[in-house]
Structure formats: structure tokens, C-alpha cells
Amino acid sequence: MDGNFNKNDLERVVSADKAHVWHHLTQHKPFETGEPRIIIEGKDMRVWDQNGKEYIDAVSGAVWTVNVGYGRKRIADAVHAQLMKVCYFANSGGSIPGALFAEKLIDKMPGMSRVYYTNSGSEANEKAFKMVRQIAHKKYGGKKTKILYRDRDYHGSTLAAMSAGGQDERNMQYGPFAPDFVRVPHCMEYRKHELGLEHLSGREFGIAAANQIEDVILREGPETVGSLCLEPVTAGGGVIEAPEGYWERVQEICKQYNVLLHIDEVVCGVGRTGTEWFGYQHYGIKPDFVTMAKGVASGYAAIACMVTTEEVFAHFKDNPDDKLNHFRDISTFGGCTAGPAAALENMAIIEEENLLENCTVMGERMMGNLQALMEKHEIIGDVRGKGLFLGAELVTNRETKEPADEKDVMAVVADCGAQGVIIGAANRSIPGRNNVLCFSPALIATAEDIDAITDAVDKALTKVFG
After folding, report:
1. What CDD domains does this protein's entry cite (predicted)?
2. Which of 58, 113, 265, 435 could form a disulfide with 269 if both were Cys (CB 3.0 to 4.6 A apart)?
3. Measured between alpha carbons, how far is 128 from 116 in angstroms, rounded to an integer?
4. How confident is the model over 429-445, as a mean pLDDT?
5. Domain coordinates of the chain in residue numbers?
6. In the predicted model, what is the mean pLDDT of residues 227-232?
7. For the segment 354-413, what is each residue's pLDDT rounded down to a tens digit?
């Protein structure tokens, strides 16, 4: 960390923060006697707090966002240059970076056609929900309005997004929720006993898990179901990759019952899973909607996108004489030009530095390291994930798969932080199932970074569990 911040400046910052800032996902009572952590500076994979402590950031800004690392001057310069030309104009009009990034993005997404700009992943998902509902009224007499979502998946923090939220602790105390959102079972093979499918494995399990979605559609009535919203790899719900056969069967079901498929790439999108630009592309999925946010500009500017097909888009221009026919929606900050300007540079960096390949190679190294830790520590019951998006599930008994206590899991996170490594964990999300350590280092991670992260986890597990 450089010397730009003197002690008096930092004391004022801490005082102002304690007095006036309401932090996300945070209980503030401890700040009456202690200090919040304030990140002062970041460079590559490292960040520094107000006390000068250096951390390796193994979760890309704590919420899976800073994919290309901190301190990218070329992104900051591109944003500055664009802001000096025009900072904002409502997206009822257009902008140069908006047009150019949409073109570049669609080039990476064969089969998709249109980009709707918005300012957060939650809002991007709501745009898709609204489109599904409007299509139901335009085409199906208002009947095909139900939106299916999956247990353990997460789609945002607004009331409609929470209505499609499969993490019950995140939803507690915020109901009642919007009607016609219906949950389907998770597809986690490690906990297949929860689904009554413990006798199956591999592809047979994957098909059976998908068939449970069909069961829900038939129970609700196919004529009432408009869309199915899923994460390609479940993120905060436990870093869950669907088993073989699952996605193939899901698409067959959607086609059979005329259900639109909405893939939420807010976490997985733009390189996080390695090799491909988007998580869904690993599995041969052909979605009707794809939503994205976090890694689109690596946090250098706010941007989110709802991307859809020309077929979906056509529903909203088929009768221009009807004043209510088009998609009557606006996202104020979807008109900011900084987001697509940053996103263009972000994507260029990923291409020029071969970060999809690096993500794959470093992801394999991290998976190997975590598997070695599983051999050493009985508390690890399973490791899983894709690319640089990995999880380690902690259990007190490998036979019964009894989840480790959330307090102990968070003690591992805290000990890693004390060592100077920031990792994540599923917490305050799923009752009795907040037992997964989460890792999502920047796509620029080196072998030394990966080893330092897993070494810290090794020491923390030893300290907390022996």
C-alpha cells in the first residue's frame, strides 16, 4: 500500500464510516466497540485495509466480481475518456459503448441476439421475469405466468428476485412475496438422499433430478408455467455443478411444455468457469434469457445485462399500433455509459491475456489442492466446482454427511482472514446447510496465489477442527 493516506485521514474515514454507513449483510453491534474493515487499496490479487494489513483476495471483491484483478489502469482510463464525452443518456436512446459492447457480447453468445442494459443482477433477473409475464398476457391469455426456480439457487435481493430465491434464510422476515413463483428441487448429487434418489448416481441421477422439475410442471399445470430460472452452477447455495444428463433433460422438458429457459449467469458469466465465456456454454444449453452482472466489468463500473433471443424480442414489436405492445420498462442507470465502456476493456483484457485458459489451468490446480486437503482433513466431505469457482463442503461425519456447524465454518473464514487470505462461505442462507467454503479468485491468479490460499485453509482447518 502506498503512503497517500495519513493516520488522521484514516481515522476520519473510520469515524465517518461507523457513524453513517450501513454495510451490506452486516450486523453493526460489534462496531460499537470495534472497527469495520475498510479496504483502502487494491492491486492485482491483493487488497489493503485501513491498518495496512495485506490480504490475498480469494473471492474477487467478496462477491465474485473483480475477475481481472485490481488496479487496471486501461479500464479506468476508458471509463474516464467516455465520461468526458457523455456520462449518461437514458437508454431509450443509444450510446457508442452501449452499441459496441452489445455487439461484442453477442459475438460470444451464439444463438442470442439482444442486450437490455440495467444496473444490477437482481434487476436484470426482474426484467426477464417481467418479459415472461408480458408474453403470458400477450400470447397466452394471461395464464402462463408462473416462474419456476430451484432450491439453493439465488437470483437477487429485490422482492421479486427473492420470490425466486431458493435460500430460505435470505428470505426470512421479508415476505409476503410475489405470487406465481414455484420452487423445484436442487440437483446436488452429494445430497441426493434429500431428494429420495440415493439409489442413483451419475447420469441416471442427473436425469432423475431433472424429472423432478417435470413433476412440478405437471402438478402446477403446464399451461400456467412460463419460465424456468436456473444458475448454471449454483453459487452461494453451495457451489453445485449439475450432474451429467441433467441439462439435456431440462431442455427436453422445457421444449415439451413450452417453458422459456432463463439462465442466471450473474456469478458464472464472463470467464469465471474457465474455457467458455459463460457457464451455460459448458453444457450445451440453448437459453431464451441470460442474465449477467458482477464480472461483466469486473466491478470497475456498474453494469448488468439481460440478453435474449430474436424470437423473444419479436414478441415486443409484433404490433406497433398497440401502444402497450412494447416492453414498457426503464432502468435509469442502464443509461450510464461507464458500464459498457469498462466492459469492453474488461473483455479485451480477458482475450489478450488468455484468462479463460488461465482460469481453467489454475482452477485445476486449486481443485487438486482442495482434494489433497480432503485427504488430510476428515472435516471436508466434498470438493466441487468449475474453473476458478470452487467449494469445499465441511461435514462432521462423512458417512451421514452431517453438516459442520456454521459458527465453525465461519471460524475457518476468520482464521484465513487473520492469516491475510480472504475466503468466502455459505452463511445465513440455507437453514442447517451453511457449511460450504467458497473460492473465486480473480482469473489472473498464479500458482503461487492458489497455493497460498489453500495453505491458509489447511492451517485454519487444523486450528478450528484439529
Report:
1. OAT_like
2. 265
3. 10
4. 95
5. 37-66+354-465, 74-352
6. 98
7. 999 999 999 999 999 999 999 999 999 999 999 999 999 999 999 999 999 999 999 999
* Three-class secondary structure of residue 147 per DSSP: strand
Burial of 28 (0-12, 13-18, 19+ CB in 10 A): exposed
280 contact partners, CB below 8 Å, separation of at least 6: 232, 263, 265, 268, 287, 290
CB 403 within 8 A of CB 432: yes
Question: Tell me, what amino acid is at 223?
Answer: E
Position 8 scores a pLDDT of: 81
Q: What percent of the chain has pLDDT over 90?
A: 94
What is the per-residue pLDDT for 319? 85
**Which class in CATH covers the domain with range 74-352?**
alpha beta
**Would you say residue 76 has pLDDT above 90?**
yes
Q: How many CA atoms lie less than 13 Å away from 139 in the CB half-sphere? A: 17
Residue 249 and residue 169 in contact, taking contact as beta carbons nearer than 8 Å: no
CATH class, domain 37-66+354-465, is alpha beta
What does the H/E/C string look like for 413-450?
HHHHHHHCEECEECCCCCCCCCCEEEECCCCCCCHHHH
- Non-local (6+) Cβ contacts of 171 within 8 A are 162, 165, 177
Q: What is the pLDDT of residues 295-308, one digit of tens each?
A: 999 999 999 999 99
| 294, 121 contact by CB (below 8 A) | yes
Set of cell numbers at residue 272: 469465471
Average pLDDT over residues 328-347: 96
Number of other CB atoms surrounding residue 193 within 10 Å: 11
Cβ–Cβ < 8 Å for 272, 232: no
| Alpha carbons 375 and 353: distance in angstroms, whole number | 34
* Distance (Å, whole) CA 120 – CA 304: 5
Count each helix (H run) and each strand (E run) in the chain, helices first: 13, 18
Chain CA centroid to CA 246, Å:
20
pTM: 0.96
Alpha-carbon distance of 235 to 156, in angstroms, equals: 12
- pLDDT at position 440 is 97
Unique residue bearing C-alpha cell 489442492: 369
